[in-house]
Write a structure and sequence with these properties.
2 copies of one chain form a homodimer. The two termini of chain A are 31 Å apart. Chain A is elongated, with a radius of gyration of 19 Å. In chain A, 41% of the residues lie in helices and 24% in strands. With 224 residues, the first copy, chain A, is an alpha/beta fold. The first copy, chain A, has helices spanning 11-23, 34-44, 60-68, 87-95, 108-122, 158-169, 177-185, 195-207; strands spanning 3-7, 27-31, 48-52, 77-83, 100-104, 132-135, 138-141, 146-149, 152-155, 174-175, 212-215, 219-222. In chain A, strands 2-1-3-4-5 form a 5-stranded parallel sheet, sandwiched between helices. Chain A has 8 helices and 12 strands. The structure holds a DNA duplex (30 and 30 nucleotides).
DNA sequence: CGAAAAGTTAACATTAACTTAATCTTTAAA
DNA sequence: TTTAAAGATTAAGTTAATGTTAACTTTTCG
């Protein structure tokens, strides 16, 4: 079942969105402020989060940033609600890791098809929903951002963690560099040619040489 | 080479997009109205079509619909150009078979990364959606870039893998050298006369002698 | 603020993959 | 049966892709 979390301080909008999305069969959760929103993301792991940008205390951008700061949610789709002429915020929205923005006023039809399009876009990444991934002798805990091998705890910095999680999300599948760049850095970020290699290097250093395999000219895969 | 067709009635935009995409090495074709656009799609079979929504006579939506009406262009990626707040049209765009929309004003960098993402998406989907090919006692897994024969895992370097996948794509069909060159190396690359032979040799070494058959003076085929 | 950690870049090294070249073998037509 | 053309084989050469290290930059957090 597809879970959608809506975060907005205006009750009317919350109700309006909630009503329309529920009617379409989505499982809707609501929060009336950013802090609560972040908490509910952790608890419910929604497939899509809709954030109002203009909120008192913590605005949507900030909420997004904090959600994205946790690697285990970097595949959650985040959309922003904006008043029609908040152009500047739209730009920040994408910078901060948002996937789309929906501008108010909202027509139900528009909302529904936008939401469906967003979810469609993400279907490929679904397999990875359970918080702890076990593979071979590793246990990857996305909440704690750490890996267990037997008694040994391996802690990884964010990018390294994201990378191993990506590879492990489809064990055996070969990920091209392109794929890795677009999934971990996003399409608008351009990093140098050797960046992935270096992260792979670090991972092999910490995990051992036998987990990640290079297929030259093709990409990397998690081998087990 | 990647071909992009841009359809827009405004010459300035056409030039601007064209300039930026050409600079990135794309092969750009332009049309200043929908009718011409549809014609050029037929002629050039571009990998990506960028359609302005707002055009006199035939709008982008209609152009898209007509392109999609031809089954052979089912897989062509279509993106729309929209003014920033044309919300309704964005919806129609997706309904009608568009893959993305790009909103004006356009920053070159954003354009480029958007276009690349779109093109990439197609390639990935191809590999991801392709099932495992089973033929004789072989299972060819394109996602894992490996071949299984019973318990045995056979890993092949890129060219060899591409070659076997090509041969297997139409089992029994004879592929001429010309065909193999153009499908695997493309028309811009020229390699020597014996290159294919060597790759065939390696494949036979790894798979066994009985899969690939030589028809002298004609070509090679996958025999099973 | 300022140190430590994370992330990126850049230069150079290494290596697997790929191509070529030289030579040998097979095939099929005259 | 001869012979020329096509293909097979092998080893050696070349290149493109990745590995490695360290320096540099940015971010994080006390």
């Amino acid at each position: 079942m597809t879970k959608i979390l809506i975060v907005d301080d205006e009750i009317d909008i919350l109700d309006f969105l909630s009503y329309n999305l529920k009617k379409e069969g989505f499982d809707v959760i609501t929060a009336s402020n950013g802090k609560m929103g972040i908490e509910l993301v952790r608890q419910h792991r929604p497939n899509l989060v809709i954030l109002d940008i203009m909120m008192p205390e913590m605005d949507g951008i900030e909420v997004c940033r904090r959600i994205r700061a946790q690697p285990e949610f970097n595949e959650t789709t985040i959309a922003f609600l904006t008043a029609r002429d908040e152009d500047l915020s739209q730009i920040n929205a994408l910078d901060v890791g948002g996937d789309d923005y929906i501008s108010k006023p909202i027509k139900p039809q528009v909302l529904i098809s936008r939401v469906k399009a967003l979810l469609r876009r993400n279907k490929l990444d679904d397999a990875t929903n359970s918080p702890i991934i076990k593979i071979g002798d590793l246990e990857i805990d996305r909440q704690k951002v750490q890996i267990l091998r037997g008694e040994e705890v391996i802690e990884l910095p964010r990018k390294e963690f994201e990378l191993i999680v990506l590879l492990v999300s489809k064990p055996g599948k070969v990920f091209t560099r392109e794929e890795i760049y677009s999934k971990i850095w996003g399409n608008d970020v351009i990093v140098g040619d050797r960046t992935i290699d270096v992260h792979i290097r670090k991972l092999r250093e910490k995990l051992g040489e036998n987990y990640i395999k290079t297929l030259k000219g093709i990409g990397y895969k998690f081998d087990f």
